[in-house]
Amino acid sequence: MITEVAVALTAFNNLRQLTTALVSAKSEIDRQEAAISFQNALLDLQGRIFESQTAQATLQERIAALESELARHKNWSKERDRYSLQEVETGAFVYRLKPEAANGEAVHNLCPQCFEDEVKSILQFLGKHGMRNKHGCNRCNTVVMG
Ligand SMILES: [Zn+2]
Fold it and tell me: Does residue 113 sit in the same domain as residue 70?
């Protein structure tokens, strides 16, 4: 952005010098040459202003995307702190809602795979498998026994 401003100021100074040359031209030929140079410099300045506006719009879009990403991470960080990793059976892990952070929600378990992707996906009871309970994730199809 600073570079674009410096380039625009240089182009503007060039226009000012060409204006002086145009006004002080002694002959019609000198005046026409100065007018053509002035028009070319004006077109160049317009192009640089357009480039600068495009660059600014791109930066504004990037800032908005980064702000959105930052807000999402902050929200996830708060949400993540409401859960703790629990081993429900040897080698079978889930993220369980901490009772002290439930805020009226039923205590539930989240899929550990989806949790790592910063997505909350509640494990659903799929039925019994012998004496063990079988739970699954509807998002990624992870199955947790226990
Ligand atoms: Zn999942």
Answer: no
